[in-house]
């Protein structure tokens, strides 16, 4: 499970970097604490589907792109 979370986190981070967004920027757009996004990107925290949808929308991606 840890490996899966790390892979998903890497995809989120890659999409964020491609958009040129900092963690704080993405957090503000999604109304999430940037520290939680950092934990997600590092594979240290599981993510709810609703949170993943907010991230995907903000990054112009589909949820399935991160799965």
Describe this entry's structure for a reader:
It contains four helices and no strands. With 67 residues, the chain is mostly helical. The chain has a single domain, classed as 434 Repressor (Amino-terminal Domain) (Orthogonal Bundle).
Helix and strand layout, with pairings?
Layout: H1 2-18, H2 23-30, H3 34-41, H4 49-59
Q: What is the rounded Rg?
A: 10 Å
Cα shape: globular
Q: Output the CATH class name.
A: Mainly Alpha
How far is the N terminus from the C terminus? 12 Å
Query: How many discrete structural domains?
Result: 1
What is the overall pLDDT average? 96
CATH 2nd-level architecture: Orthogonal Bundle
Low-confidence stretches: none
Structural class: mainly alpha
CATH evolutionary superfamily: lambda repressor-like DNA-binding domains
What's the helix count? 4
The helix content, as a percent range, equals 55-70%
Give a count of the beta strands, DSSP E runs of length 2 or more.
Answer: 0
The largest sheet is: none
Examine the coordinates and then state which fold CATH places here, giving the name of the CATH topology.
434 Repressor (Amino-terminal Domain)
Q: Give the DSSP E fraction (strand runs of 2 or more residues).
A: under 5%
Q: What is the N-to-C order of secondary-structure elements (H for helix, E for strand)?
A: HHHH
């Amino acid at each position: 499970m840890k490996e899966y979370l790390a892979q998903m986190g890497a995809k989120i981070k890659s999409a964020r970097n491609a958009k040129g967004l900092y963690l704080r920027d993405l957090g503000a757009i999604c109304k999430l604490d940037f520290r939680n996004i950092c934990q997600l990107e590092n594979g240290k925290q599981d993510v709810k589907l609703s949170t993943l949808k907010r991230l995907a929308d903000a990054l112009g991606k589909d949820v399935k792109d991160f799965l």
